[in-house]
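Hey,

Quick one before I head out. I ran the complex with nicotinamide-adenine-dinucleotide overnight. Inputs first:
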Amino acid sequence: MATSGWWSDHNGSVQAHDIINPTTAQRIATIQPTTLDDADRAIQAASAAQPAWASLAPGDRARLLRRFADLVETHLDELAALEVANAGHTTSNARWEAGNVRDLLEYAAGGIERLSGRQIPVAGGLDLTFREPLGVVGIIVPWNFPMPIAAWGFAPALAAGNTVLLKPAEWTPLTALRLAELALTAGIPEGVFTVLPGDGPVVGHRFATHPLIAKVCFTGSTAVGAHLMATCATQMKRITLELGGKSANIIFADTDLDEVAAAAPGGVFDNSGQDCCARSRILVHDSVFEGFMERFEGAVRSVVVGDPSDPTTMMGPLIAERHRSRVLSYLDGVDVAFAGTAPDGPGFYVPPTVVLPKTNEDRIVQEEVFGPVVTVQRFSTEAEAIALANSTPYGLSGSIWTENLSRAIRVARAVTSGNLSVNSHSSVRYWTPFGGFKGSGIGRELGPEALEQFTEVKNVFISTREG
Ligand code: NAD
């Protein structure tokens, strides 16, 4: 990212985006990015379409979203194949991701008839609250999980009666564009759900400055998120930020080392480590350190890295050569304990790599690498494990491995992260809330309150005076 000038509105010429398959390094599409004028026209159209969308009978809006979900299901193989080609995701991951879009649409559709207000006791009348839609919602998506992160925003936003503009990441627009076509085929009216491929500083920035956008949902880097938050503040615009992570995988002595070592690669190397929830810092109790490392080495060396469309592949390439260079820059001068293997190319591969940091202040411990790289550190007490876990600017996710339930709960409550798992690496379920503490973001997505995040509460008092 350039360090100056990238935040300002500009309407200069936008260059076509070549979409590259990260497995072959070959161009698979060329996308003409949305200009500022086109973005403004789309925002106007979304605003014009919103009142009719919001005033549809709840059951009718729900039916349209279910039809959209059905079409995602019948096109699941196609969407997954598109993501394998565009983002280098393994086929099984990409199929899960398309299925997640379907599930999110169904879950959100089920909430529409339940999005009710309250009747609150007052003297002299009747007091009612309404959950009003916000208007137009702008969603800005990163390249690491193009389908799920898009749907975390658009499914509840649409269900709550908002219209949506979605800007996919420059490198990965293909599934979002296909989803927009499926939405139209499902009968969702023009202007209700529009995908605007384009440059972050042009289209994404416009979401933050345009007065007709009521809320911005941003997932991406902390630097861009902070800038967008400041921009939105000038208009009191609502914003949700899902940012980076540097999550700890805390391994106590009273755990099954075979199980924990076998699970650890999946906790950090899934999606080639390009996962905001990656457990990229392993913290191991002193007394089991050697035993864990021995088992972990075997598990890391058996991670199959290669063509993501091969069903035996566990980890594909990184998204782009530029990103690969950035990830490799973190390995300069560090002590690598061991690494797995990866093909030489032409794809943008990095082998799964395990690093022993010199200090907790090392760049590789404190910064999000967003690649298949993990550090391993020791601790001797529960308090030290908690202090290490909390020692980065981030607070998104994390795992705790122990058979001691009291300790599991103590540590889960003490770690300043939004999503913790005990004896598991799972973080994301569409029906449970997700979001970060500290530098990992603001606001929550998913879960039972997902639709409410896209509404304002309105209070109406009706006097029952006589005459
Ligand atoms: P990024 O911030 O560079 O880009 C994310 C999106 O923002 C892209 O669509 C991009 O075009 C857009 N953008 C860029 N500059 C912009 C600007 N000035 N104004 C408006 N929009 C702009 O991040 P990235 O490299 O694409 O994604 C990786 C980051 O995303 C990582 O830090 C990762 O942790 C984070 N992430 C977080 C979560 C979460 O839920 N917390 C999930 C996935 C990824």
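Confidence is low (pLDDT under 50) at residues 1-12.

Talk tomorrow,
K.
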